[in-house]
Amino acid sequence: PSGMSVTFATGHVDRADRRPWYVYSKLGYQTRIFEFGETAISIDAYSGAELNSRGSESISVGFQAVQTVVRWNTEFYLGLRLVEYDNDVVDDKKGVGAITGAIFKF
């Protein structure tokens, strides 16, 4: 009823050569900003280490939005993500990703 949603995930493995782990969390909110449909927004964050190799670290932060247009039976979406990866071979590689589109239901 509040429109709020929370997601949390974590994991790790004890291996002979390394101890990979990750933590992920997401906070979302749904509301009706516009008369024509529901709006959903969320932010998320991820951090992990030693997933691909010893000494590797990865971080990611994202923002997502979905706008429903009931009359058209359509959802428009947008996602933005910042990523950073570092290991013993590659130093601080950063990137930005974006995705946008629509889902038409018929």
Short description:
The protein has 106 residues and is mainly β. 0% of the residues lie in helices and 70% in strands.
Question: How would you describe the overall organization of this protein?
Answer:
Helices cover 0% and strands 70% of the residues. The protein is an all-beta fold and 106 residues long.
Short key terms for the protein model shown above:
mainly beta, 106 residues, single chain, six-stranded antiparallel β-sheet
Overall geometry comes to elongated
Into which percentage range does the β-strand content fall? over 45%
Mean pLDDT: 92
Q: Which residues form runs of ≥5 with pLDDT under 50?
A: none
The main sheet orders its strands as 1-2-3-4-5-6
In N-to-C order, the SSE pattern is EEEEEE
How many extended strands? Answer: 6
Structural class: mainly beta
Radius of gyration: 18 Å
Please report the number of helical segments. 0
How far apart, in Å, are the first and last alpha carbons? 28 Å
Annotate the secondary structure layout.
Elements: E1 4-12, E2 21-34, E3 37-49, E4 57-69, E5 74-86, E6 93-104
Antiparallel strand pairs: 1-2, 2-3, 3-4, 4-5, 5-6
